[in-house]
């Protein structure tokens, strides 16, 4: 057998018939690695296998060195622990504390011992592999910032306002817990602590104007912080302890904030908005006026219109429209409610006029999150919201009681400008739109509407434009075509696309 050594090839060396790893320790790790050179058998005669083993060894050693360097340089315990879990992940091992390893399956312990043998029993990898380190004591007050850091990819599409709002919900939940219990390490939160937190919110619910849904959000946000804590450090699901798991208030409803008690705004009042009368006194803020008109006419969410980037406003198309979707450009970054909200909204009549006055969008309000408060304050300060009828008051009270919230509070503000979306759907329903057609126009989930996976592409922009004209309000200067004519054009368009019409459409009298 030959004992010759082949020339070193990028860290791979052939000695006789066996391959070895041989490479210098990078200078930046010299303070934590006494060896100047790594020189270790890869225990294989196959060059391809040796190359794979070499890269695995490099990765594992560099992660190990990064962990040691983080500790030596005094980086936070969190950073060094994350480096350690990255190192363990390279070995296909989850982090487990020593007591869990000792009491766990024998196969897991043997696998860890085998990994140690690959590094040597004196290696600094031993404490990590054998769980000799404890989870960092991260306090409740630190978790909101860590949520932002750990979920950086998830929130990367949010603009500055949306990011602040996302972080603040965890800051509020953390502050409430500290007020009720104390600022203690996440890993030490007990079931008694969780029950005290829930009791605190139940008492506030009885004494204040809060909704059960709001309380459930506080509980959910705190539960998410605990889940993130364990997720950050690679703790297996089966070994996590989250005392908030499964905790919530029953009968909270599926509505957010006050939505469940709000009624549709009267259609004749919305028509006055579209005609420019309701917001005539807001003449010093023409952008707010035009946002209100577009929202009222199209049924869009206020944030969808005020956050529009210029490139999503398409006025030179045969069918002018705006595009609602996630925007990940740094200059116009914005996140919408969900995937189902992505849609094209055709512009007709006064909505088209409003967007032509604002071809680049609404820079005063884009990404600020202030339009809803601005419009609501103007309407309340000038007593411009319509007064609810007795029947509407009774319905508001019924909804408030069903959602477990204050009837008096619900009656104080029976309408919000966001209720224009409710009115928009009511108009579609009165005109004979199907449930699916309404969902397409509203930006609602077709999966939930159908109760099954969604197939097909949905209505094109030409069909959506006809639908939009059907529900649009006439003004002093513009009127939609008669509904019979528009429905005939809808049917003609569907036939032209190759669809057969099987049932007559129910139309309102």
Automatic annotation (TrEMBL):
<dbReference type="InterPro" id="IPR046668">
    <property type="entry name" value="DUF6538"/>
</dbReference>
<dbReference type="InterPro" id="IPR002104">
    <property type="entry name" value="Integrase_catalytic"/>
</dbReference>
<keyword id="KW-0233">DNA recombination</keyword>
<dbReference type="Pfam" id="PF20172">
    <property type="entry name" value="DUF6538"/>
</dbReference>
<dbReference type="InterPro" id="IPR013762">
    <property type="entry name" value="Integrase-like_cat_sf"/>
</dbReference>
<feature type="domain" description="Tyr recombinase">
    <location>
        <begin position="264"/>
        <end position="468"/>
    </location>
</feature>
<dbReference type="GO" id="GO:0015074">
    <property type="term" value="P:DNA integration"/>
</dbReference>
<dbReference type="GO" id="GO:0006310">
    <property type="term" value="P:DNA recombination"/>
</dbReference>
<dbReference type="GO" id="GO:0003677">
    <property type="term" value="F:DNA binding"/>
</dbReference>
<protein>
    <submittedName>
        <fullName>Phage integrase family protein</fullName>
    </submittedName>
</protein>
<dbReference type="InterPro" id="IPR011010">
    <property type="entry name" value="DNA_brk_join_enz"/>
</dbReference>
